[in-house]
């Protein structure tokens, strides 16, 4: 199914990298020929009345600043959409802080793909991404703000992080429109040994992709004492990969939270565009 309707959540402060990420996300939507819907949310903070003298930064001042932040994010989106000519719409709202992630995930259910600007190792961003993965039922495309100036909105060189799991298979299915448009697709399995089972699985995926007009290659990358997430990042950087396609949370979310894992590593600091599904 082609990607025709994408969703862009807008949360946080309008810093330079965040504004640049909005620009890149809009460019991706334009390249896909999709409509893009931006939804800006801010905290609906309840401030308990007090009889003591107010702090210089009053509740009104905080609210005005947050409203200003939200409007700047929306303005950046509208301006980017106008420049690219992409079909676009936007909305905004207020909800309690603990409902922001679930509210955005609910809206993401009515799109083909959600584009998520990612602040490096930011707990709030990671919580939003995890909520999307488990509650939206849709794939995500992570846009790393820390390297946003280096990102290309076209995905010519794509890497599939293949671990033989059902989640990886789901990610491949979700990413088929991107894979079909790519000039180069590489299936990569990270393992200590290149076993027959690994080769057979990678070869089977290549044959499956060929039926969809995607001519991919397969290879393995050694762990060599590093984490799988870091190996994927290094491999992507050294091979000029535009986007990684991968499944999320092969183990339970609690297990990955306690012990770390590939998903936590990648969403904490994506090495490039990452299309991820659960």
Itemize the secondary structure elements and their pairings:
Elements: E1 5-10, H1 16-32, E2 35-43, H2 59-84, E3 88-95, H3 100-108, E4 113-118, H4 123-135, E5 140-144, E6 157-161, H5 166-174, H6 176-181, E7 184-190, H7 196-210, E8 216-221, H8 228-238, E9 243-247, H9 253-259, H10 262-268, E10 273-277
Parallel strand pairs: 1-2, 1-4, 2-3, 4-5, 6-7, 6-9, 7-8, 9-10
Antiparallel strand pairs: 5-10
Helix pairs in contact: 1-2, 3-4, 8-10
Descriptive report:
The protein has 278 residues and is α/β, with parallel strands linked by helices. The chain has two domains: 5-149, Rossmann fold (3-Layer(aba) Sandwich), CATH 3.40.50; 157-277, HUPs (Rossmann fold, 3-Layer(aba) Sandwich). Helices cover 43% and strands 22% of the residues. It has ten helices and ten strands. The protein has helices at 16-32, 59-84, 100-108, 123-135, 166-174, 176-181, 196-210, 228-238, 253-259, 262-268; strands at residues 5-10, 35-43, 88-95, 113-118, 140-144, 157-161, 184-190, 216-221, 243-247, 273-277. A ten-stranded mixed sheet has the order 3-2-1-4-5-10-9-6-7-8, with helices on both faces. α3 crosses α4 (123-135) and α8 packs across α10 (262-268). The longest helix is centred in the N-terminal third of the chain and has 26 residues, at 59-84.
């Amino acid at each position: 199914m082609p990607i025709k309707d994408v969703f862009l959540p807008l949360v946080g402060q309008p810093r330079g990298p965040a504004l640049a990420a909005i620009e890149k996300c809009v460019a991706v939507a334009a390249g896909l020929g999709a409509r893009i819907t931006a939804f800006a949310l801010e905290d609906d903070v309840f401030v308990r009345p007090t009889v003591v003298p107010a702090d210089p930064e009053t509740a009104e001042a905080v609210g005005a600043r947050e409203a200003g932040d939200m409007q700047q994010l929306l303005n950046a989106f509208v301006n980017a959409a106008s420049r690219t000519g992409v079909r676009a719409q936007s909305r905004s709202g207020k909800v309690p802080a603990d409902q922001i992630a679930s509210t955005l995930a609910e809206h993401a259910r009515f799109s083909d793909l959600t584009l998520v600007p990612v602040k490096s190792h930011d707990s709030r961003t990671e919580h939003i991404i995890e909520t999307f993965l488990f509650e939206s039922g849709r794939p995500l495309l992570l846009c790393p703000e820390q390297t946003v100036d280096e990102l290309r909105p076209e995905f010519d060189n794509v890497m599939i992080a293949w671990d033989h799991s059902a989640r990886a298979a789901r990610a491949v299915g979700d990413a088929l429109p991107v894979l079909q448009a790519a000039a180069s697709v590489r299936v990569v399995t990270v393992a200590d040994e290149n076993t027959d089972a690994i080769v057979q699985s990678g070869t089977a995926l290549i044959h499956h992709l060929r039926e969809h007009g995607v001519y991919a290659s397969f290879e393995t990358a050694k762990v060599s004492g590093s984490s799988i997430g870091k190996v994927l990042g290094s491999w992507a950087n050294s091979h000029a990969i535009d986007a990684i396609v991968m499944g999320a949370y092969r183990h339970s979310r609690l297990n990955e939270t306690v012990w770390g894992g590939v998903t936590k590593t990648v969403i904490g600091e994506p090495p490039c565009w990452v299309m991820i599904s659960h």
